[in-house]
Design brief:
The complex is a heterodimer of chains A (about 260) and B (about 300).
Chain A (H helix, E strand, L loop, with lengths): L1 E11 L5 E12 L6 E6 L9 E7 L1 E9 L3 H7 L6 E8 L12 E6 L3 H13 L5 E6 L8 H7 L1 E6 L6 E2 L2 H11 L4 E5 L2 H14 L3 E4 L15 E3 L5 E3 L6 E3 H5 L4
Parallel strand pairs in A: 7-8, 7-11, 8-9, 9-10, 11-12
Antiparallel strand pairs in A: 1-2, 1-6, 2-5, 3-4, 3-6, 4-5, 12-15, 13-14
Helix pairs in contact in A: 2-3, 4-5
Chain B lengths: L6 E3 L2 E3 L3 E3 L21 E7 L12 E4 L2 E4 L7 H7 L1 H7 L4 E5 L4 H12 L6 E5 L10 H4 L2 H14 L4 E5 L6 H10 L4 E4 L3 E4 L1 E2 L4 E2 L5 E5 L4 H14 L4 E4 L5 H10 L3 E4 L2 H4 L3 H16 L13
Parallel strand pairs in B: 3-4, 3-16, 4-7, 7-8, 8-9, 9-10, 10-15, 15-16
Antiparallel strand pairs in B: 1-2, 5-6, 6-14, 11-14, 12-13
Helix pairs in contact in B: 3-5, 5-6, 6-7, 7-8
Chain lengths: ~260, ~300
Amino acid sequence: MKWLRTTITQIERPAPGFALLRFAGQPEIQGEPGQFVMVRGAWGNDPILARAFSLVEVGVHGAILVRVVGRGTRRLADMRPGDSIDVLGPAGHGFDFSGKGDVSVLVAGGVGVAPILMLAESMAASGQRPIVLYGARGSGELVLCERLASAGEVAVATEDGSRGHRGYVTDLLLGVLEKQPSAHLYACGPEGMLEAVAKMAVRRSVPCQIALESPMACGKGTCKGCAVLARSGQYLYICSDGPVLSADDIYGEEQ
Amino acid sequence: MTGILETRLGPLKLKNPVLVASGTFGYGVEYEDIMDISRIGGICVKGISLTPRPGNPPPRVCETPAGMLNAIGLANIGYDAFISGPLQRLRELCATVIVNTYGTSAEEFAELARRFDKVEGIAALEVNISCPNVNAGGIHFGMRPEPAREVTRAVREATRLPIIVKLSPEAIDLAGVAQAVVEAGADALAVMNTIRGMSIDVDTRRPRLGSVMGGLSGPAIRPLAVRLVYEVHKAVSAPIIGIGGVTCLQDALEFFLAGASAVQVGTANYSNPRTSLDIIDDFETYCIEHHLFPSDLTGKVQI
């Protein structure tokens, strides 16, 4: 892991309330799909904490996808090229997608598309063509679809029916799992979606990795703030044990 | 390094007066990949209990204006795992280790002190009688002079290590608690731990923390901490370590002028884990430019 003070090099605004921030690597940003960085701007004492973001791109530039949900994300989304940011990472454990030849099904909900996009592009680079299911409340919250489409077979769902299937992304997953019972699942999205995906996977004994999120302070396994209760009855820490965990570890059925 | 920052807190000698606060820097070793942790004046490790503790139900942290609430519940790996794990590495790295200890009774505090007394590589104990996030012990010992005195005396009788007692801002008479623990043998005082706060999500109408209440920290509480350092400094002659929202040299200087002989950096470690090193560098430059030692500033606020 590295800590660096770097600068924003480019900002894309793929939809209202979203910003794709690229920052200089000095010399390179490293990381695997599912790993994250803690990011904070040079804005004094408030808000005090860095924010955790999944890596979307690594290399000479790193990139994160910001969705505005509060004061910190608003300030990040309003930044301009040349502004200074602090970046700590790469943090946590990413997706394990070494099992080539399996059918990979990627499920993204909302801003959870960030690590799913990097995973899809990494799979595509290694010769796979994953199935990508992407859900949001409405079409205005579906971002980076063109990039997803060049990496995999994409199907979308919106709760208001403004694009793709009207309903939840898990409706799409149900259909895919009927045709692809030997799939490997990879998911990131809101807690309700992750729970639904994980339980579908556990019920069918389908391998499933989920990327979780939590309020977080350190990003380094030290503050013990991001606890999640595992099936074992023990607490796991999303920043250091995760953020990618096996669906079975969290939502598996009692033996 | 010129040595200009060398600091004495009673029997405790430190290379500089900028420490990192317990609970905000893990066991220290987690940061060796991004900074030279041996440069820090002292690493107050995450509170250690005799046996491991799992901690409180989530969510355990939430952000508040210029600060944060936490209700971790002293999740820690326990004495045995600390001794055989992180402490070995801290010694290899030549870090200055201050062990924050937590017990549910004076006897548990004493037992921890007895055990650490025999362990190599520990600079001091920081006795935590001020954690607001546990049902037993913690803040319950720090609210009034007598329980605070009893715990300190028990620890004093169990170890020759320098003892820092970490006080709570919620004590009804903090100067009285400070006097009691100094009489009982404390070598230095850490002022202050977090103060209990609460935050509610108005959409869900639920508390933002699983434990409902948690300890408030960060720049939001700095004026309270500065005031308490000032009051305790007037009441006792023991050295004081100021804690509460230190983010930069200016904040540290404020604590020194109020009466502190050292400071701890806490929540700011989450904004930038290297904050303590930046303050050390800036403090050294400041002392050279002003031809003074840090101790020349202690209590020098002009009223």
